[in-house]
Amino acid sequence: MLAYIIRRLLYAIPILIGVNLITFALFFVVNTPDNIARLQLGVKNVTPEAIQKWKANHGYDKPLLYNKNKSGGEALTETIFYTKSVRLFVFDFGLSDEGRDISHDISQRMWPSLAIAIPSLMVGLLVNISLSMLLAFFRGTYIDVSGVITGVVLISISALFYIIGGQYIMSKLWHLVPISGYSEGIAGFKFLILPVIIAVVGGIGSGTRWYRTIFLEEINKDYVRTARAKGLSELKVLFRHILKNAMIPILTGVVVIIPLLFMGSLLTESFFGIPGLGSYTIDAIHAQDFAIVRAMVFLGSVLYIIGLILTDISYTLVDPRIRLA
Fold this sequence. Notes:
Elements: H1 2-30, H2 33-41, H3 48-58, H4 74-77, H5 80-84, H6 102-137, H7 142-156, H8 159-173, H9 189-219, H10 222-229, H11 234-245, H12 247-257, H13 266-272, H14 277-286, H15 290-318
Helix pairs in contact: 1-15, 2-3, 6-9, 7-9, 8-9, 10-11, 12-15, 13-14, 14-15
């Protein structure tokens, strides 16, 4: 197991290097530091002196890859590539273009994102798996057909419709929960109810149809027919055998997204005024703060790779036939 984890971590290194190089090329070759300075200064007739001053204040005045004015190791370290890209590998995100500590912002903003993402994931899993098992139990009946049609309709509706509709009905008409905002501690629970409900409802269509397909595939396998031949009821077959054996494909979809929960939801956090990592990224894009965007892209890549490794490890917990060497 340990050797497998180490091997996978080593495989992740070239992936992260590739992501880092592509990000660097997009931000500093396609979009040069001079262009970044012009965007940040926000004036049409900006002077070259103002551009140079802004670049010097934010560390963009160095050469891109090699500093010929330095000797030894400083020729490589005193460059934009080292200060803005290489340091990401040790999670030194540096300062934003506005001068804020990006690492501190991430450590503060990840908790509101988790406060929404974890309940949405857990409740969503419970609802989707329960509904899909219900449809699989009544497969071929009007309940199954109605559920599939409803799922297709729910998938076809934009996420913005759920957000705006939920805010209008539950906040403006019924006054059950605040329309937006966030607060820490127990007082913040009222601000999380509506985003969690909308996240769960918005994912019912795709989640239920996906899990229903998994259960239907398991229903037609030999071990299910053997269990029925032994006299087990359909409910016992469904819960004792089918659900257990369907855990591998379910884990594939669940474990991968667990690390990405830290990244938050871009739409949900923006519309509900929640100070998480999702709204942090959106605000950085609007402000054209490319330092934050680069950090979030790299962090997202790291978390996605961690999710893939956790997925492989979790297989051994639900299927004893799988062993990681």
